[in-house]
């Protein structure tokens, strides 16, 4: 593997946590190996590994972009990642308010619903 892949795996684990990455790696197959390598090198090894902006800011941007483009399936994963990136619930709500104004209230509303459910799950698991 490349150094960018190695950096991507390191960053991915720091942001998403070992348990998530271990599950994703266990589900990798020959069919999606190339895609998984691309994501690890580009998203995690290049974009998320850059120090040009903070991980807190990256979380906010990522969540806003996911909501604005209607890619809701990854919002819970990135909400859980905020525990590692430093983006607060208030930060996330600010990002979703931008989504409401610039991409539409229904998308922001759905993202907020997902965030609330995910935060509740996170709280429940920390109480256990």
TrEMBL record:
Domain of life: Bacteria
A GO molecular-function annotation: peroxiredoxin activity
Signal sequence interval, chain numbering: none
Carboxymuconolactone decarboxylase-like domain segment(s): 35-117
Protein name, UniProt field: Carboxymuconolactone decarboxylase family protein
Organism, scientific name: Pacificibacter marinus
């Amino acid at each position: 593997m490349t150094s960018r892949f190695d950096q991507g795996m390191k960053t991915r684990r720091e942001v998403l946590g070992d348990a998530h990455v271990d599950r994703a790696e266990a589900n990798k197959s020959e069919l999606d190996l190339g895609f998984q390598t691309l994501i690890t090198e580009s998203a995690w090894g290049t974009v998320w590994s850059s120090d040009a902006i903070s991980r807190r800011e990256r979380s906010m941007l990522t969540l806003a972009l996911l909501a604005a483009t209607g890619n809701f399936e990854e919002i819970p994963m990135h909400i859980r990642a905020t525990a590692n990136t430093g983006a607060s619930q208030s930060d996330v709500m600010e990002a979703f308010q931008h989504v409401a104004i610039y991409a539409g209230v229904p998308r922001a509303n759905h993202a907020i619903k997902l965030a609330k459910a995910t935060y509740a799950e996170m709280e429940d698991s920390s109480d256990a």
